[in-house]
């Protein structure tokens, strides 16, 4: 009788352990009931537009933020026509104080807000001293200050409902000290640490936080005005290193709530680990070679 009870206890304990670990490992992303809002910055192109398409198909009401109004309209019209969801737009330059503040106000009033994707970003090319201080300071504003302030605006409602998620789009570049990318690497590293600490602080309030770290992704990033400003060009990057925005987004949403750092693609996971095992001089040299002695931005 006693052996039978111990066996039952052990079996129950094992089943509970498996259930608990499955629960911890299961993602938190779900389709919307049509009521919930998702906010995406940098939604007029690339990864942001891919987030918008995925979330609209899953029934989210959308607030799309970027500077180019006609591009936002194009995305908004397509999504409301195709999926019948409500799509609002906010034309805003998130390097500008007034525009950040307008976005903060609008986000604070969205109810219920389920997801904030801090995605807007840009890269520059060339060494730090060859870029203007203004462009680098604007990058910090867009990659760090705007996400801080928009996240702060989004959280009270999410915490009150004990439901929500923040996705901060960082980069695999955040794991590197790449010549030609000083501000970019540093500002993307900021997003990882910020997400990790927030994730810890919010773990009991059922708000998930993710630092999404894509590698080379086929978007307008490497042809944008800021990136081309120095006249430098991205060298030939082999096809197998590139991912689509759609695949990056699918990975992000699948992994949401499973772990704070999401690196889409096996190769990118490996690339992100290299700096931890190789001497920094080797990494810097390889980065410089790949970039033809310059920045290559990812
Ligand atoms: N593509 C890659 O290889 C790659 C790799 C790793 C990480 N990332 C990151 O992924 C994110 C999205 O980039 P992407 O690849 O999709 O590039 P993208 O196609 O150039 O899209 C960038 C988006 O950010 C918006 N944006 C840029 N500056 C802005 C500003 N001042 N205010 C508001 N919105 C602004 C752009 O819209 P407007 O021009 O209309 O404002 C656009 O919607 C970025 O944070 C980037 O650092 C990209």
Short characterization:
The chain has 298 residues and is of the alpha/beta class. Helices cover 51% and strands 13% of the residues. The strands form two sheets. Strands 3-2-1-4-5-6-9 form a seven-stranded parallel beta sheet, with helices on both faces. The protein has a two-stranded parallel ribbon with strand order 7-8.
Molecular structure report:
Strand 5 (164-169), helix 6 (182-202) and strand 6 (207-212) form a beta-alpha-beta unit. The chain has one domain: NAD(P)-binding Rossmann-like Domain (Rossmann fold), CATH 3.40.50.720. The chain has 10 helices and 9 strands. Helix 2 (46-57) packs parallel to helix 3 (69-83) and helix 2 (46-57) packs across helix 8 (245-255). A 7-stranded parallel β-sheet has the order 3-2-1-4-5-6-9, with helices on both faces. It has a two-stranded parallel sheet with strand order 7-8. It is globular. The protein is of the alpha/beta class and 298 residues long. The termini are far apart. Bound molecules: NADP nicotinamide-adenine-dinucleotide phosphate. Residues 41-48, 66-68, 71, 93-95, 119-122, 142, 169, 171, 214, 216-217, 219-221, 224, 298 line the site of NADP nicotinamide-adenine-dinucleotide phosphate (NAP).
């Amino acid at each position: 009788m006693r052996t039978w009870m111990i066996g039952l206890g052990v079996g129950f304990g094992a089943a509970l352990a498996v259930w608990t670990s499955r629960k911890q490992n299961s993602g938190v992303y779900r389709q919307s009931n049509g009521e919930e809002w998702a906010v995406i910055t940098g939604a007029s192109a690339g990864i942001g537009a891919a987030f918008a398409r995925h979330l609209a198909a899953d029934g989210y009401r959308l607030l799309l933020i970027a500077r180019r109004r006609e591009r936002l309209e194009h995305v908004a019209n397509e999504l409301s026509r195709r999926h019948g969801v409500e799509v609002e737009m906010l034309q805003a330059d998130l390097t500008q104080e007034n525009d950040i503040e307008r976005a903060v106000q609008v986000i604070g009033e969205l109810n219920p807000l389920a997801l904030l994707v801090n995605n807007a970003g840009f890269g520059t090319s060339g060494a730090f001293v060859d870029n203007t201080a203004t462009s680098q300071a604007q990058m910090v504003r867009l990659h760090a200050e705007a996400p801080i302030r928009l996240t702060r605006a989004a959280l009270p409602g999410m915490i009150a409902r004990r439901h929500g998620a923040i996705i901060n789009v960082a980069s695999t570049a955040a794991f590197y000290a790449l010549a030609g990318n000083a501000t970019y690497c540093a500002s993307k590293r900021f997003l990882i640490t910020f997400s990790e600490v927030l994730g810890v602080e919010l773990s009991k309030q059922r708000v998930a936080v993710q630092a999404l770290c894509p590698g080379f992704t086929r978007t307008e990033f490497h042809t944008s005005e800021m990136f081309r400003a120095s006249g430098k060009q991205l060298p030939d990057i082999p096809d197998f290193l590139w991912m689509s925005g759609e695949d990056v987004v699918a990975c992000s949403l699948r992994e949401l709530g499973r772990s704070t750092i999401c690196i889409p693609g096996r190769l990118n996971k490996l690339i992100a680990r290299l700096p931890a095992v190789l001497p920094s001089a080797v990494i810097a040299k390889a980065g410089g070679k790949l970039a033809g002695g310059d920045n290559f931005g990812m």
